[in-house]
């Protein structure tokens, strides 16, 4: 399936980010658009794409999200079609980042990507803390950055501290952020814009370090 990418950021950026969406919202959702624009303002090139089940919804086909593992070939195909000239970081929001994490090591070992970026990693389904999606993360070799809200129902700091995660994984915690990284300003003192700036600055510095 040919991809209709959405691009943000300068075409001559030193790093390109390929981001997939979460299970229930498309590539142009408010959350995906906000983070893509923040990353672009930090000087990064961002390409967003959709898995076929989500693209089908645009034509009226109400397809549910499939098992994440079945989307691995589509992620590989998106990398091939994008054919980024600059160093490439793959990742995505929630399920999109999870799928990217499943293909990251093979692409990194072959020199196709420089790293992995997960925005709100779904460590477990909400309310089901024993159904972990972390097995492959223990041995992950790809340089990885996870941006996670401390209020995320898919994995809180206390939960994540107990997981066996690869030393290649770095996690930046966003105070009171939910699964979209949004805080409650009245509780945390931070706004969504504050957290987006933090994400953009952190990702920019991290990509310069691993791909510079």
How is this structure best described in words?
This protein has 212 residues and is α/β, with parallel strands linked by helices. 34% of the residues lie in helices and 17% in strands. The protein has helices at 30-41, 52-57, 72-82, 95-109, 157-161, 185-188, 192-211, and strands at 6-8, 16-20, 45-49, 88-93, 115-119, 144-149, 169-174. A seven-stranded mixed sheet has the order 1-3-2-4-5-6-7, with helices on both faces. Helix 5 (157-161) links the parallel strand 6 (144-149) and strand 7. 42% of the residues are buried.
Strand content: 15-25%
**Which superfamily, in CATH terms, is the homologous superfamily?**
Alpha/Beta hydrolase fold, catalytic domain
Number of domains: 1
**Main sheet overview:** 7 strands, mixed
Sum up the overall morphology in one term.
globular
Layout of strands and helices, then pairs:
Elements: E1 6-8, E2 16-20, H1 30-41, E3 45-49, H2 52-57, H3 72-82, E4 88-93, H4 95-109, E5 115-119, E6 144-149, H5 157-161, E7 169-174, H6 185-188, H7 192-211
Parallel strand pairs: 2-3, 2-4, 4-5, 5-6, 6-7
Antiparallel strand pairs: 1-3
Helix pairs in contact: 1-7
